[in-house]
Write a structure and sequence with these properties.
- The chain is mostly helical and 125 residues long.
- Helices cover 45% and strands 0% of the residues.
- It contains four helices and no strands.
- It is elongated, with a radius of gyration of 20 Å.
- The two termini are 39 Å apart.
Length: 125
């Protein structure tokens, strides 16, 4: 959205609704990519139904009870969005190389004090 352009209230709302639709589509694509990554054997991947993007959880046990499969918007094509985000997540066969390139820290292994000390040293507090 060009913020310098003069628009009527109706035009601003129209653009905002279009942007909201794009965010919802992006949420759909990223959700299905995450499900494919986390639960590759889940049968729902064969269908990939339109979901309620505002009810997204990665816990399959909660999908039905929290209304994930009860969308409030009409289904739209996602092919162009999928094409834009293909390759964001590393595919499983390449994960073996990750250990040589990236140091992962399990949650809680790096303490907040360590992070604060590192940041303070960089900005010379």
């Amino acid at each position: 959205m060009d913020l310098a352009a003069r628009r009527s209230k109706e035009q601003v709302l129209e653009i905002a609704y279009k942007n909201l639709d794009r965010f919802e589509e992006l949420a759909q694509v990223l959700f299905w990519q995450a499900v494919e990554e986390c639960y590759p054997e889940n049968n729902i991947l064969k269908q990939r139904p339109w979901i309620n993007a505002w009810r997204i959880r990665l816990d399959p046990k909660k999908w039905s009870e929290e209304g994930l499969f009860e969308p409030t918007t009409a289904q739209r094509p996602l092919e162009s969005r999928r094409d834009n985000f293909t390759g964001i997540f590393v595919s499983k066969p390449a994960m073996w190389a990750r250990r040589f390139l990236i140091k992962d820290y399990p949650r809680g292994q790096i303490g907040l004090c360590h992070v604060q000390h590192s940041v303070a040293a960089r900005i010379k507090l």
